[in-house]
Specification:
By secondary structure, the chain is an alpha+beta fold. About 35% of the residues lie in helices and about 30% in strands. It has a five-stranded antiparallel β-sheet with strand order 5-4-3-6-12. A five-stranded antiparallel β-sheet has the order 7-11-8-9-10. The termini are close together.
Amino acid sequence: MTTLSLLAQHVTRRPQRIALLEQIAAQGSITRAAKAAGMSYKAAWDAIDELNNLADQPLVARSVGGKGGGGARLTSAGERLLQLHQRLQAIQAEVLQAAEDDADLQVLGRLMLRTSARNQLSGRVQAIQRQGGNDLIEIELPGGSSIQAQITHSSTAHLQLQDGVPLMVLIKAGWLQLSGLDQEADPSLNALAGTIEQILPEADGPCEVRIALPNGQTLCAQACAEQLTRQGLGAGSPVRAQFAASHVLLGTQV
């Protein structure tokens, strides 16, 4: 099964995501598309980040601060996804008509993945190295950058990992450590360099920092406003996000 078809199944389980893509195609504006899809502006940005991160290439091309609060359009990959979704809807209708017991559909629904991790990236196994009781999984992200995940031997076997297997990479926002590119990196940690796209203050907690990666994926980190000021980091600043290999969670399609 291709990455595009897997992603189409993902958004099919979340119809509001498809509604957002349809409205972006029609409206050309994130603000107007979010309103038409019944989503907040922030939820629309989160949804676009999630879809772009899970795809091998961005589905939505956007510009911050454009007409109507940010211009947006579907890429050719996004247009193909919408067409695939329409075909999947027709197939889904046939399956629902053939289902003999609603309980079977409920079981399938419980098996679908839902996670609290803000960062959900697509990747592919590049190599597996044994390290004592664990395995170090080398993961290639779209665009050629790579990170590492440390998991147990049993987890490697359970996920049926081998070179070339596609993965979903999960990283909690609070696990990312931010620093400027002029600061020394910790060689023991994963490092992804990008540009701060937005800083969203929170009333009762750390700021949400959106980081645009060169490959079109987006990271979401948490950082105190004082820390960002102290490091000279703001919107448009180059930034490095670091995180431990043990903080990288992996998932595969069943």
